[in-house]
Specification:
By secondary structure, the chain is mostly helical. It is built from three helices and no strands.
Length: about 60
């Protein structure tokens, strides 16, 4: 997955904040994998949020 330079910097900063909060050092690919797992969760919360955002973006 490719990110533009600004987006990449923002993600790196967010990952540092996540690491400071949790003590866990994840790379971008690990975070993306975990977000995809969460999107497939049975409660559907993240999936529904993504679907709503997709609908707004397509409008």
């Amino acid at each position: 997955m490719r990110f533009d330079p600004i987006e990449s910097h923002e993600i790196d900063r967010w990952l540092l904040e996540l690491r400071a909060q949790t003590g866990v050092r994840w790379g971008k690919s690990e975070v993306i994998r975990e977000l995809l797992r969460m999107a497939r969760a049975s409660d559907g919360i993240l999936r529904d949020a993504l679907a709503a955002r997709a609908k707004r973006a397509g409008a």
